Amino acid sequence: MERYSIQEFVTETKQQDKGEGLFELETQRLLEINLTDKIWTKAGAMVSYRGNIKFEREGVFEHGLGKMFKKTLTGEGTSLMKATGTGKLYVADQGKKISILQLNGESIFVNGNDLLAFEPTIDWDIKLMKKIAGMLSGGLFNVKLEGEGLVAITSHYEPLTLLVTPDNPVFTDPNATVAWSGNLQTEFVTDISFKTFIGRGSGESIQMKFSGNGFVVIQPFEEVYLKQTNSMG
User: Fold this and answer.
1) Which Gene3D superfamilies match (predicted)?
2) What is the pLDDT of residues 15-32, one digit of tens each?
3) What is the DSSP string of 20-53?
4) Structure pTM?
5) Rounded to whole angstroms, how far apart are CA atoms 83 and 88?
6) DSSP states of 84-110
7) Which residue among 58, 108, 111, 184 sits deepest, i.e. has the most Cβ atoms within 10 Å of its Cβ?
């Protein structure tokens, strides 16, 4: 067990300016945002700040009626917080590991639970997985991000990226799926027999299938927000 004097502890753990720009990983699980204007973060992600920063919950009509309607359907999982001003903002999400992505005109889908922060230059939209809405409690939604700018995503433990090719589709557990490239085709498949191996109750096993050319990011952990209705009691 590590033991420190007070001075040693401060020296070992103190914040350091790394000169990495807007998004800077202070630790693998704590993101520093060097704010000069505006940023969108997951609501409730702020853990500390210094400077002149104002926080606002996403306005009801901030992004138009279409997104408001979809947000209502998906619940609070997509709630965003807008931080404006100048200063240093520190955000985190339940100790999950943070990865910073630079979008250069590409598009990426991120599970709504795994989106931590993104620049206002990024275009975004909520995408509902309609086909399984009636099969699952809480539903499943993702956020499509595209354009130019930085995006911070989170994962439980280290993420693993699987490459998808036309002759080799990838199947994932929706609960363990973090993100995927925007050009992939996605569908849900069920396997009634698969449940007998994992002991998940009486429901069918729902898997995501990714086809085309691209990548899928998974985590070695299953989020609990996605449950089958017929296995709850």
Assistant:
1) Mitochondrial biogenesis AIM24
2) 988 888 999 999 999 999
3) --SEEEEETTEEEEEESSEEEEETT-EEEEEEEE
4) 0.83
5) 11
6) EEEEEEEE-STT-EEEEEEEEEEEEEE
7) 111
